[in-house]
Each structure stands twice: as C-alpha cells, then as structure tokens.
Specification:
mainly alpha, 0% strand
C-alpha cells in the first residue's frame, strides 16, 4: 500500500474520531445543562438563534455564578426572614397590594444577603437561574404581577404571593444543609486523634453535668408553671 494512502487513511480516521469526540462532548454538555437548568434551558433555546447559542449563554451564567460570593444564611438570619415573611402574609388579608410589594422587597433583601447582585432584574434572573431554576418561573410571574399590582385582581395578587413564597423558601433554605454538614465536619475533624476525641468526650460530660446541676437547682413548682 502506498505511503500516501496510509497517511490519508490515518488523517481521515483521526478526523472522524475527533468529530465523534466533539459530538459526544456536545451531547454531554447539552444533557448537563438541561438537567441543571430544567425549563430555563428550553426557554433560553427558544430565545436564542440556536441551541449552541443557548448553551453558550447558560455556560456563561455558570461562569459568572462561580465568581459570586454566594453564601448560606445564618440560623438567626433565617429566623429573622421567616418572621418578616409571616408578618407580610398577615398583612395580605387587609392590604394585598402592599403585601405583594413588600414580598418583592424582602426577596431582594434576601438575595443581597445571600450574595446575589440585585442591580438589574434581567441579570438577577440570569444569576438565580444557576441554582434556583426550579422556582425561577414563579419569580418571573410574581414580579410581573407586582409591577402592575394596582391594576391586578385580588386573585392575581394571591397567586403572586404563593409564587413569591416558593421562591422565598427556596432561597431561605438553600445551603443550610451544607452549612450544617460543614459544622459537623469541623466538630469531628480530629476524630482520628485519641487525645482530641477524649477531650471532646470530657467536654460533653462536663456540659451534661452542668445541665443536670442547673436542673436540680431550679425545681419544678406551681409558681413557675412547672418549668
């Protein structure tokens, strides 16, 4: 077989292999983005000229999101926001339009405290879509109602509050489990050290003894309600 024919076969084989690898890579990227963004993937594809353009857009959102300092709320902050939300829901009974406006404001405050920029609505949507795609459509619909709240019906406002609540709960609890897991890891970071393990057990025994001592020093009586 002539040398030039061997070279041609090798070149063609390499080109075919490269094309196959490229196609497989693109398909894996598509599936990954679809899984991560859900309905937002289809929405972006519909808005762009091609699926490739949509994938580039979503990949860019991921890149930007990695540069943000997104952090979970502390337990005290979660409790504070939960109280604020409860007050807003109570206000809805008499002032539905005002309640919806306040719900939007609390969400923006919550996003900012989590580390999300809030300077522009469209950019806000793009940033949220990376980790909160499942509630993003609720945010869009509720925000649209909030923008025309003075002309919206009570039923529309109620629907907006329900949708805002879904987004609120998603943002409120996201990362809380990771934070608890990190604290657990830090507490048990020296479990393989016998000295540290014994020290931890000694502290736990001391805490338990102190609790029992305080309990015995504060007997249950009628005057304190049995507490």
């Amino acid at each position: 077989m002539p040398t030039w024919l061997i070279v041609l076969i090798v070149v063609v084989a390499v080109a075919v292999l490269g094309a196959v690898i490229w196609l497989v890579t693109q398909e894996m990227q598509r599936k990954r983005l679809q899984q991560r963004f859900g309905p937002e993937y289809d929405r972006t594809v519909a808005e762009k000229d091609s699926p490739r353009a949509a994938q580039r857009e979503l990949a860019e959102r991921e890149r930007r999101h990695k540069e943000l300092d997104i952090r979970p709320l502390s337990a005290s902050a979660r409790e504070r926001y939960a109280r604020e939300w409860a007050q807003i829901q109570e206000k809805f009974v008499d002032q539905p339009s005002v309640a919806v406006a306040e719900a939007d404001q609390v969400l923006n405050s919550l996003m900012a405290e989590r580390g999300y920029p809030t300077e522009g609505y469209e950019q806000q949507l793009a940033d949220l879509s990376v980790r909160h795609a499942k509630t993003l459509e609720n945010y869009r619909a509720a925000h649209a109602t909030q923008q025309k709240r003075d002309g919206a019906s009570t039923e529309d406002l109620r629907d907006a509050m329900v949708r805002y609540r879904d987004v609120f709960e998603d943002l409120l609890t996201d990362g809380a489990d990771d934070e608890q897991h990190d604290r657990h890891d830090r507490r048990n970071g020296h479990d393989h050290s016998g000295h540290d393990h014994d020290h931890d057990r000694a502290e736990k025994r001391a805490d338990r003894h102190e609790t029992e001592r305080q309990a015995s020093a504060s007997p249950r009586t009628e005057s304190n309600g049995g507490r």
